[in-house]
């Protein structure tokens, strides 16, 4: 049963392991934020708890899509919810780190602006088709995740410089991959594939 939008709403209601992992990642976001923000981000113990939560959530990202493809459980819900879960987790971490003064706001702003733009584009063209995460977008998410993980860890000295370099690479990939999604969205909006 399809609605006239082309989105299979009935598949969104089928809770299977890949979709459950995606939902688990979404539920982990407030816990991650709470750990990261606890004591103003100055407690090593809370930072490590935040990192462990973030790492567990990122691991689910690796397996939800892999299992969905292997078990032939790829759904429109998963195609939409998976990138939203990634954006919520990474975006929340970036905002907290910027509020704590650990990360510059321009990096957070550029990444969040790109993610909002691509998400809006995905929803605008939803009637014509779902834009799944492409290879560039997946690489971008991995680099963003590594950068954010390094920032969450209570590191100092040379390791903090490594975190800054990886975050700079994440910002560049974020901007470069935005074009890929916007071109696909433009073609779908014009009725081309």
Give the helix/strand layout:
Layout: H1 9-12, H2 17-37, H3 44-70, H4 76-99, H5 105-124, H6 135-152, H7 158-189
Class per helix and strand makeup: mainly alpha
Strand content: under 5%
- How many runs of DSSP E, i.e. beta strands? 0
- The string of secondary-structure elements, in order, is HHHHHHH
Q: Main beta sheet: strand number and arrangement?
A: none
Number of domains: 1
Q: For the record, what is the CATH homologous superfamily label?
A: CDP-alcohol phosphotransferase transmembrane (TM) domain
Spans where pLDDT lies below 50 across 5 or more residues: 1-13
**CATH class category:** Mainly Alpha
| Helix percentage range | over 70%
CATH architecture: Up-down Bundle
Choose one word for the global shape.
globular
- What is the mean predicted local confidence, pLDDT? 81
Q: Could you tell me how far the N terminus lies from the C terminus, measured between alpha carbons in angstroms?
A: 24 Å
CATH fold name, please?
A: Four Helix Bundle (Hemerythrin (Met), subunit A)
